[in-house]
Amino acid sequence: MSPDARQLIAQHARTTQLLGVDFLPLGTAPQGLSTQQAAGEIEPKSTPQPSNPLPDAATPPDAGELNRMAAVPLAELRAQSDAISDAQARLDALRARYEQDAPHQHFNTSFTNIVFGEGAADADLMFVGEAPGEQEDQTGRPFVGRAGQLLEKMIVAMGYSRESVYICNVLKTRPPNNATPTSEEARLCAPYLLEQIRIIEPKVIVTLGLPASHLLLGTTSPMRSLRGRWHAFPPPSSSGGIISDQDLDAYPSIEVMATYHPAYLLRSYTEENRRKVWSDLQMVMEKLKGV
Q1: Count of domains for the chain
Q2: CATH of the domain at 241
Q3: Residue of 160 and 67 predicted with greater confidence
C-alpha cells in the first residue's frame, strides 16, 4: 500500500471519530477518483469552450445583449401558481411554464433533458445547486452523478431521505462542459427557482456552492465567509438581490445555510473540508429539530 493510500485511510478514520458519521466511503476514494485527486491535488476546472446552441435556436447573444434581456416577471409566475391549490400540481405547472418560456434558448447550452427538480412538494428542507451535470442531463433528475451520490449520503446522515427533501438547481439545463453558470444565465433562470421556493416554502434552504449562494443571498462573498452561519432569504433589497422591493412581501422568510458543493468535496477530498460541511449540516439538523 502506498504512503498516499495509507494517509487517505487514516484521514477517513480520524474523520469518523471527529464527526460521528462517515458520509463518504471509508478506505478508498470514490470510484474513478485517483489518490492524488482524493487528496485535493487536482487541477481547477478549465475554461470551457462554448458549445453549439440548440439546433433550432438562433446564435445566442453576447454577454451584453444577454444582460439586457428581461426575465419573466415574478408576479406572472405567482399568479399562475396561485390559481392552483395543490402544491405538486403547482410545481408541475411551473415546469410546463419553464418549458414553454425556455430561458435556456438565450444562452449557450447543449442538453438532452430539462432537469427541473424533484422531491417532496411540502419539504421542510431544500437543497439548491448550480446546474445539472452529464448524468443529470441524461436522466432528467438532479444530483444523480458522483456528487449526487455523495449528497444523498449526506441527506441520509442527517436523518432524512432523498424523497423527503426537495433538490434542484439554479439552471435547469446542463451548461457546456459543466461550466459554472454566469450571472446573466442565473438571472434569466432565477424566477423559476424563486417560484419553486415559494411553492414548497421550506423551513431551511441549503445552498450548495457559490452560484446558488450568491444568487439567493444577493452577495458576492467567498464561501469561507458565507458558510457556518445563518442567512436570511429573501435578502434585503439593499443587497442587490434578485427580488425587488415590490416583490419581497410575496416570499416566505426562510433560513439559509451555504456550504460547499459535493463536487468540491470530491475534488478536495480532505478531512478539513468534510468536517466543515458536516458542521454546516449539523446546524441545519439542529434548526429543523422539532419541526
Answers
A1: 1
A2: 3.40.470.10
A3: 160
